[in-house]
Amino acid sequence: MTVVADLALEVRSKNAGPFWVTMEVFARDADAYEVVADSAFLDASVIARLYGVPAQDVQFYRIPSLNVVKISFPRPVVQGSLRDHDIHAGQHHVPLAMLAVPPVT
Hints:
Blueprint lengths: L7 E8 L4 E8 L2 H7 L7 H8 L7 E5 L4 E7 L19 H4 L8
Antiparallel strand pairs: 1-2, 2-4, 3-4
């Protein structure tokens, strides 16, 4: 089974202020970018399911010249609050990185 991490040089997440998380998928090449940038595979509903956020709040930035897909969404809890388990949002990328990629037909 191929996962997003297999197609990427790096998958990372980071703090985008106290209310937002940004994740980035740096695809290894143009072919891998075509897979991860395909909105039929990776869209707001997938991110909503993975992270428990409303789909309408998910923002995508597809940058083909860099083979990068950026995804931003509101943090589930405010940064630094009592229930914040990852103040730097450094581990939020794991569910995305482990997302199974459908077989190419």
